[in-house]
Amino acid sequence: MKIAITSASGQLGRSIISKAKAAFGKENVIGLARTPEKAKDLDIEIRKGDYDKAEDFAEGLKGIEVVVILSGNAEPDKRIQQHRNIIEGAKANGVRKVVYTSIVGEPGKCKFDAVIISNRQTEEDIINSGLEYAIGRNGLYVEADIACIPQYINAGEISNSAGEGKCGYTTRKELALAYVNMIKNDALNGGVYNLFGEAITQLELTQAINKVHGTQLKYRAMSVEGYEADRVGLYGEFFGGVIAGIYEGIRNGTFDAPSDFEKVTGQKHQSMLAYIEEMK
Ligand SMILES: NC(=O)c1ccc[n+]([C@@H]2O[C@H](COP(=O)([O-])OP(=O)(O)OC[C@H]3O[C@@H](n4cnc5c(N)ncnc54)[C@H](OP(=O)(O)O)[C@@H]3O)[C@@H](O)[C@H]2O)c1
């Protein structure tokens, strides 16, 4: 079985490719990349795969049985057509199955909606494509928070607008395990799976960091408006707005849902405490 994985040069792409090589053999794994030279070190066949170029997928999906589509990171309205370029390439080449990395979240609760809604549209496009499919809805990557630990220590606190909302976090390593199972196990076909660990609050995340790093960080809840103004000031309208929208979403329960991780992988998701310990 030949498997193609898009966005091969990115962090999630690399993680899935590493597990897929072990599961299926490196000769059966093909990376699709917008910038192939960035994926050279993966030691697998790399083909051109720019989401904006339908012709890349008309060519790059030749001989492929299963394609894993990683959601793009362009503005939400552009992503829908980008993902359609891959779905059309899959159909034209007789690809049997599509696995898609979507995002968890109930629309209507925060300004991150545009991203969630664009992911739901791609889910619908895949379901209506006539191809076999398995869709994962990723929790939020906790790596982004872990990378901020030096900043948190500097500030003596974690501050955002999530308040007491719970968030289902995950890691790219755990997601890779889930996606390889979704490629392999056809009994999971036709399903949409929430992929994250036990949902936790920002206070619980702060306490886990304190426990592992011996710090005394506090958690400070900010208002939605105050945090948005702060992030937009730091990162600009689009990216600052996305970050603020995510924390508004956590506050409103957008990312707190039952997880299907164990059903997909047959094992429990690593706890955030264990992951923070591993990363120390
Ligand atoms: N759940 C979460 O918390 C969360 C957080 C952030 C992002 N995400 C989503 O998860 C995806 C993967 O995350 P990641 O951490 O692996 O991101 P990443 O490390 O930043 O990698 C992004 C990848 O997207 C590729 N890409 C961008 N535009 C492309 C295009 N037009 N055509 C083909 N490839 C393109 C990049 O290719 P180049 O090497 O050519 O730049 C790169 O390989 C993101 O794209 C985003 O949709 C989820």
Model description:
This protein is an alpha/beta fold. It has a domain at 3-137 and 171-195 and 258-267: NAD(P)-binding Rossmann-like Domain (Rossmann fold). The chain is built from twelve helices and eleven strands. The protein has helices spanning 11-24, 54-60, 76-92, 113-127, 143-147, 149-155, 172-184, 202-213, 224-235, 237-251, 261-265, 272-279; strands at residues 3-5, 29-33, 45-48, 66-70, 97-103, 132-138, 140-141, 157-160, 169-170, 192-195, 218-221. A seven-stranded parallel sheet has the order 3-2-1-4-5-6-10, sandwiched between helices. The longest helix has 17 residues, at 76-92. The protein starts with a strand and ends with a helix. The structure holds NADP nicotinamide-adenine-dinucleotide phosphate (NAP). NADP nicotinamide-adenine-dinucleotide phosphate binds next to helix 1 and strand 7.
The residue ranges in which pLDDT falls below 50 over 5 or more consecutive positions are none
> What is the CA-atom radius of gyration, in angstroms?
19 Å
Structural class based on helices, strands and sheet pairing:
alpha/beta
By CATH, the superfamily of the domain at 3-137 and 171-195 and 258-267 comes out as: NAD(P)-binding Rossmann-like Domain
Outline, from the CA principal axes?
A: globular
Count of extended strands = 11
Beginning-to-end CA distance, first to last residue = 38 Å
